[in-house]
Design goal:
alpha+beta; Alpha-Beta Plaits; 3-stranded antiparallel sheet
């Protein structure tokens, strides 16, 4: 097992939280920019389907991307003005 299969790097669980958002629309906007650029994403939002916006201040929306897309995703969202350093750290 000295040479792991390259498929391990493409496993769907090899993801990281790219950014945090207090508002659903910000997270969805960021996801849209990445989707348009061909970057697969996952949003984790716990706000009761938009019915309890206050939940997102306790548990912000998280935008996940695969490890191989982290740098590209940051550049895309920074250039679009969607994220700043505060969105990247929580």
């Amino acid at each position: 097992m000295n040479n792991p299969s390259p498929e391990i790097d493409r496993h769907p669980l090899n993801t990281v939280v790219l950014a945090y958002f207090h508002y659903r629309y910000e997270a969805e906007l960021a996801q849209g920019y990445l989707d348009e650029s061909g970057v697969p994403t996952v949003l984790l939002i716990d706000d009761a389907g938009g019915m309890d916006v206050g939940l997102s201040f306790v548990n912000p929306a998280r935008l996940l991307v695969g490890l191989e897309y982290v740098e590209r995703s940051r550049l895309i969202l920074e250039e679009a003005g969607v994220i700043d350093q505060d969105a990247l750290e929580m």
